[in-house]
Amino acid sequence: MNARLETTAPATATLSADQQIGQIAVQLPGATAVFRRLKLDFCCGGQVPLATAAAEKGLDVNTVLSELAALQRPTTAPEIRDPSALVDHILTRYHDVHRVQLPELIRMARRVEAVHRDNPMYRPGWPICSKKWSKSCCRTCKRKRPSCFPCSSRVATRLWASPSA
């Protein structure tokens, strides 16, 4: 992708119609799926402002911005008062989000390989690698989640409740 992360600003920064579409794709997890569905080119054509890209497709930029805003997540963790809340936060904020986003990552890797296969800088095999990694992660989570996280929660609860030395 031609878009580069030019800033370390959090993804919860205010979205703007003036932002380059490629920059939004890099900074906001889930934006690529929205752009792909709307047929907005965020890769090779990602150097244009969102307003321009939306107008070229006959889309209302405010509707697109609203859909993108719904993807934003807080950058700070919630205040955790007990270990089971921490486990729930990890499961919903990270595990569930990755499970939803991995298929989009694999689709994007396949597209990059199809478009840039002849580029000498491209290293083939990313879609296959991404898919194998995704399957491995999902298998591991399915196997360990029912036993590992409740156990971690119980142990952490005991440690949390014990007085510090």
Oligomeric state, counting identical vs distinct chains: single chain
The secondary structure category is: mainly alpha
Residue windows where pLDDT falls under 50 for at least 5 positions: 1-12
The main pleated sheet reads as:
none
CA distance, first residue to last residue: 52 Å
The coarse overall form would be: flat
Helix content: 55-70%
Radius of gyration: 20 Å
What is the H/E string?
Answer: HHHHHH
Give me some keywords for this one:
165 residues, 61% helix, mainly alpha
Secondary-structure topology with pairs:
Elements: H1 21-27, H2 31-37, H3 50-56, H4 61-69, H5 83-116, H6 126-161
What does this structure look like?
The N and C termini lie far apart (52 Å). This protein has helices at residues 21-27, 31-37, 50-56, 61-69, 83-116, 126-161. By secondary structure, it is mainly α. The longest helix is centred in the C-terminal third of the chain and has 36 residues, at 126-161. Helix 5 (83-116) runs antiparallel to helix 6. The protein is flat, with a radius of gyration of 20 Å.
What is the compact description of this entry?
The chain is 61% helix and 0% strand. It is built from six helices and no strands.
